[in-house]
Amino acid sequence: MAGNSIGELFRVTTFGESHGNAVGGIIDGCPPNLKIDYNFIDNLLLRRATGKSFFESERKEDDKVMFLSGLSENDMTLGTPLAFYVANKDVADNTYEDLKDIYRPSHADFTYEKKYGIRDYRGGGRASARETVARVVAGAVAMMYLVKNGIHIRTYTSQVGPYKYNEDSYLPDFKKVDKSPLFCPDIELSERMINYLNRMKREKDTTGGVVACVITGVQAGLGEPVFDKLQAELAKSMMSIPSAKGFEYGMGFKSASMKGSEHNDPFVTDIDNKNNTVKYTTSTNNAGGILGGISNGQDIFFKVAFKPPSSIGIPQQTIDNKGNPKSIEIKGKFDVCVIPRVLPVVEAMAAIVIVDHLLRFNSLHTVSNKNK
Amino acid sequence: MAGNSIGELFRVTTFGESHGNAVGGIIDGCPPNLKIDYNFIDNLLLRRATGKSFFESERKEDDKVMFLSGLSENDMTLGTPLAFYVANKDVADNTYEDLKDIYRPSHADFTYEKKYGIRDYRGGGRASARETVARVVAGAVAMMYLVKNGIHIRTYTSQVGPYKYNEDSYLPDFKKVDKSPLFCPDIELSERMINYLNRMKREKDTTGGVVACVITGVQAGLGEPVFDKLQAELAKSMMSIPSAKGFEYGMGFKSASMKGSEHNDPFVTDIDNKNNTVKYTTSTNNAGGILGGISNGQDIFFKVAFKPPSSIGIPQQTIDNKGNPKSIEIKGKFDVCVIPRVLPVVEAMAAIVIVDHLLRFNSLHTVSNKNK
Amino acid sequence: MAGNSIGELFRVTTFGESHGNAVGGIIDGCPPNLKIDYNFIDNLLLRRATGKSFFESERKEDDKVMFLSGLSENDMTLGTPLAFYVANKDVADNTYEDLKDIYRPSHADFTYEKKYGIRDYRGGGRASARETVARVVAGAVAMMYLVKNGIHIRTYTSQVGPYKYNEDSYLPDFKKVDKSPLFCPDIELSERMINYLNRMKREKDTTGGVVACVITGVQAGLGEPVFDKLQAELAKSMMSIPSAKGFEYGMGFKSASMKGSEHNDPFVTDIDNKNNTVKYTTSTNNAGGILGGISNGQDIFFKVAFKPPSSIGIPQQTIDNKGNPKSIEIKGKFDVCVIPRVLPVVEAMAAIVIVDHLLRFNSLHTVSNKNK
Amino acid sequence: MAGNSIGELFRVTTFGESHGNAVGGIIDGCPPNLKIDYNFIDNLLLRRATGKSFFESERKEDDKVMFLSGLSENDMTLGTPLAFYVANKDVADNTYEDLKDIYRPSHADFTYEKKYGIRDYRGGGRASARETVARVVAGAVAMMYLVKNGIHIRTYTSQVGPYKYNEDSYLPDFKKVDKSPLFCPDIELSERMINYLNRMKREKDTTGGVVACVITGVQAGLGEPVFDKLQAELAKSMMSIPSAKGFEYGMGFKSASMKGSEHNDPFVTDIDNKNNTVKYTTSTNNAGGILGGISNGQDIFFKVAFKPPSSIGIPQQTIDNKGNPKSIEIKGKFDVCVIPRVLPVVEAMAAIVIVDHLLRFNSLHTVSNKNK
Asked: pLDDT for C241-288, tens place per residue?
């Protein structure tokens, strides 16, 4: 019970079913005196809603956030809980009526019913990807704080179906990423991916994909061994996203076939004569920016694998809740792939984790200011 | 701060540095009336200590657990906190003296110092894999409870260096697994892996690996959407193990290149005429036993990738804590690969997560018994 | 940070400032298949808003709850988070403009500013008793579950200013309580209390009071030693109510002057021949229904003391945020006493604590039902 | 389940039964670079063991703390978990054998059995006041950190049986407190209390008492509304101490009969010409140092009421676990009153709460130091 919160000090609790009144959440522990930038939130919501492309689910999600608390008259955070919601519009219940008693393959209909003894069959209820709207809003607020602290989070598409981006480095040219409608750094590959997505669409089928994420500007020291290591918290947050099936950071699964002599990152001293600073860093970054569960000041990077969406137009065999065999053919127009709409969700979850650990780190590193 | 606990209702808090007095922990929330089987714990500790093979670190870890609380006279759990420790023996501090000021590549020396402003340089301190002893003891207690509930957790070696087990199914022949000194279901492959490990040892180098885990007997309903989904909690627990770099469940990263029509698992009715039972299940299990973050009654399976151990005998360049370049050559005899010693650690962490979610599930599904 | 949640398994997170858009909250972990009774909630909100009397603050709080999630079409709880809010109406900001820079005596203006570096001066912001609306809604949902389990929570007025109810027993005649406009079991005393409140009102002054609470029907076994003992959790929840200054249960402060031989409650066997049941209970109940932090099956009772409201009409000396002395005379019409409006808040907090511990208790006492 | 932890960032988890191997705990989140002062701990343990007087239980508790982790070679905290225990000596099991099946009046025998289905009958098991040893050790570590931050916690005896200290101020002359064997500021009263305790001892009876606590040096800003208000957290921690029956802070229950005009504390500007500082404070401190759940920079003070110990030598009627009536006469020599032994326990719990909130406060008030 009570699994709808994430974070210790920057604690996000979300709510909402696909076809209920709204999705939203509460951010408890948001630092005060942070200016809310509504455009920033709207843009992130728009990226989630449309993927900036024509591959999205055709449900119109003209999502506008509404804050109910936690802000001053001029939209500064007060340090008190920020409650927000995004209304669910375009909610046509009747399309789901005939799925009421049927367990759609690879959906959560069956498991929700087993767990709770009741389920909201309309659009998947709480199990719908619609709930990620709340993640995106909370993540957008987190990002505003991170940007003030010089921390930036970016994602790109690493794989769509069988098409994999062949990286030289974890850090692609983000100008190219921005040019690709699929946010893939390889423009040519990007087009092949689009062709593949179009083909899947014609075939009423779906496909999976992989998202890569890079976080820059994180100081050394974040992460709480031994269970709340930074990579463990990132893994949890990513694996909680609907359809996520795998997580890796640094060299990830590839590290399994590497030798220690290849994988180890030598420490070096980085002298910046212009700014007269000295930084201890590493000459390579196979670690992915985390050592022993604690950020080392290098870029943090990781990948998340997503399965193909379960809603396909092809007829499928399944059963209803009385055990009778049923053939179903899911109507409506669904996402062919979670990419690119899931990219802002990955960024949002990363932001929530990093802010939380920044605050946890801070609790140790303060000269207490006695009151005047 | 305070990242050394895992679990909500079955809450494990661990402590201990590599060369301190002891490693251990407290289990708070262990169900009462559970008989402690010391042999079971000893065996799991032995597997962690030796890997049943000759590839282990040569530190002798003749680990015996000592319980300080939570047990009745005849070793039944009381429902109160179970505190335990395993003493650190064979602790020769002086071998580490010359590493006191040096940041070993890919170790946590640098990050612990940055985080805490102080570090225990002896054997890696809290960042040593020695801390997994406490995980194994807590996991062994968890397993005792799971076995009573018909739940079994098993691991096998899926990859060592470049050698990958080519599975037909996630469920191997565990008799073969038991025969392999590396716990790999393919005996021939197992020998090639051993040869490779021997070669690495000669070269004073190390290698990575992948562990697979299968959990059978879990009922439908475990896991707490949307952030404490079962796979998210498993991912976190696995990624908190020293050297873990990747996690995937079900089809994992492979699902990214699959089509929905391939990946979806049809629901079917499984009629057992002999026992006169009807079970709703799926004809395939690409999902890996979890749908929407909740167990579906099928086997749960996942994999964890581990990097090559960072302690290699080959000379390496690095810096000391004043930024001066240093060449080091790590002495002592260290593990060539985390496999097979990490297998019981994976099992232990899985057990802790599953018990915790079993108790969380139970909180909802009880007919309250009014007191007499 | 992040102090706006209470409960482990029945977890309530609230939000809202006095003059923001709304107050509300999320209940995460509410048991599924519970029918929401809107009348029940409305009645509790009405009691909070008006105290059923003419002593209330004259702000009109025609509070209607709006649920945003967690309910099926026919208002059954789904087991998913229940989000709700009550809009803030009758919000006239300008009355507070001249208090913007002034620290009102015994209000939280100064401390919020010190803590967060910013504060919402309009009506006390988050520190306003307006936030108890969210507690009452969450508590009402908790009570619906408790009533199904045979548990009932009732309060009465034990003291107003110098007028104390002289109880023979912790369990008064609740018919008399219901007849008193101040919910005091002694009707004559009740009138003297009213006269006193009227006098305070004329004098533009305020007064304190004491609320007593009785919980019946709680089975033995609730409470989690050693820190989450039932009385400790009740104490925390009560002391978190605005203006609460003291908590005692059972004989409370009186027990300090009692002898063990007077205070001890003998165990007895209670044989019910009609229902053919045998119950182990105590012949007296000085303990207040809790032994060793765990409910013993007897009635639970406690008292909460409240200070006089800080907003008085009499001129007061204070300072502004530049340290300049200021004389203020608070306008508007405020509560003369928190009684009787605080009674449903006490009930609500008690209900939240008891449900949470009922679910925690359940996690241990379940025969796991294997799925079919 | 899992109620043996307290604190969010300075998290203390305790373990141990009265007649098990040891009592102890883990402090997770203890700030690093804190020097452990063993004498300080020993002294606090000694005060808990003997009360500096002849009124104690005659069990010899020559308690020495043993740390198992979290310390450097020269006893500096590492920021990693501090595990500690105190061995249980003088454990003679057989004295409890005849109480095995009997529910002692007002003890926790019955409720532990109802809750867990099993209980450790030896000396009360986990319900014994012996568990406070772990609180005292953790509190001693907390105090070391507080003293470095200029915060001091002191207690005195406010009541023993019918004898009440008649304070003019919450802040007594602590030199007098130190002179009294019962830590009561009124020496004459102290002697009457002692006479009363001697009388109770002769009569084989027990008595209750009240402890007062004053915390000085706490800056403004600590406490997390709305549920983790500072007084709520203090109340919980105090009410979790064995035998505690009531908590009040500031004017407490007395405030119920006060007028707002009497109770309000005017803000004033305190100009210190010598040190050239200006402090905003209050001219009175009826609030007890907390406004709106947040410390205001004034002294914090509160009282805790304790019931008479339940173990009396006078014959009592009760039942056994089969419901049969039994007469018992508890042997051994038990405490006549929890005072003065409980005073260091009150201090310890206060210290744990204050450190935790200091760290929580810090998480918000840090200029992030980017790594070099």
From this structure: 999 999 999 999 999 999 999 999 999 999 988 888 899 999 999 999
Across the interface, of C219, C363, C371, the residue whose CB is closest to B9 is: C363
Q: A302-325 pLDDT, tens per residue?
A: 999 999 999 999 999 999 999 999
Closest by Cβ to B363, choosing from C280, C297, C359: C359
- Closest CB from C8, C149, C278 relative to B368: C149
pLDDT band at D51 (very low <50, low <70, confident <90, very high): low
ipTM: 0.96
State the smallest CA–CA distance between residue B220 and chain A in angstroms: 6
Is residue A95 over pLDDT 70?
Answer: no
Residues 4-23 of A with CB under 8 A from D: 8-9
CB B107 within 8 A of CB B121: no
| Domain segments of chain D as ranges | 5-250+287-370
For chain C, count helices (H), then strands (E).
Answer: 8, 16
Q: What is the pLDDT of residues A201-260, one digit of tens each?
A: 999 999 999 999 999 999 999 999 999 999 999 999 999 999 999 999 999 999 999 999
Tokens 């003419």 found at: C54
Task: Mark which residues 129-158 of D lie under 8 Å from C by CB.
Answer: 131
Neighbours of chain A (3+ CB pairs under 8 A): B, C, D
Q: Which of B334, B339, B162 is CA-nearest to residue B244?
A: B339
**Of D210, D231, D213, nearest in space to D222 by CA:** D231
> Rounded CA gap, A87 and A109, in Å?
23
Question: CB-based contact (8 Å) between A232 and chain C?
Answer: no
Strand partners, B26: B13, B83
Cα–Cα distance measured from residue A6 to residue A9, given in angstroms and rounded to the nearest whole number: 9
Whether A92 has a pLDDT exceeding 80, the answer reads no
* Contact status of A118 with chain B (Cβ, < 8 Å): no
- Opening angle at CA A98, ends A95 and A104, nearest 5: 100
Categorize the per-residue pLDDT at C372 as very low, low, confident or very high, splitting at 50, 70 and 90.
very low
* Distance from chain centroid for Cα A299: 18
- Beta-carbon contacts below 8 Å between C and D: 386
Q: How many residues does chain D have?
A: 372
Token pair listed for D41:
């701990």
**Residue B131 contacts residue B240 (beta carbons within 8 Å):** no
- How is D139-165 classified by DSSP, letter by letter? HHHHHHHHHHTT-EEEEEEEEETTEE-
Question: C139 Cβ partners below 8 Å, 6+ apart?
Answer: C44, C344, C345, C347, C348, C349, C350, C351, C352
Angle at D279 between CA D273 and CA D281, to 5 degrees: 130
d(CA B251, CA D79) in angstroms, rounded, equals 39
* Nearest partner of B298 among B222, B245, B369, judged by Cα: B222
Residue B143 has a pLDDT of: 98
Predicted TM-score (pTM) of this structure: 0.97
Q: Please tell me the distance from the alpha carbon of residue C162 to that of residue D257, in angstroms, as a whole number.
A: 5
Q: Choose among B251, B227, B259: nearest CA to A241.
A: B227
Do residues D365 and D139 lie in contact, with contact meaning Cβ atoms separated by under 8 Å? no
Average pLDDT over residues D128-149: 97
Which among D69, D116, D371 has CB closest to B21? D69
CATH H-level superfamily of A5-250+287-370: Chorismate synthase AroC (3.60.150.10)
Neighbouring C-beta atoms of residue C314, cutoff 10 Å: 14
DSSP D262: H
Cβ atoms of residues B15 and B30 within 8 Å: no
Closest CA in chain D for residue A279:
D372
Mean pLDDT of B166-188: 93
Give the tokens for residue B245. 């770099």
d(CA C126, CA A80): 7
pLDDT at C96: 73
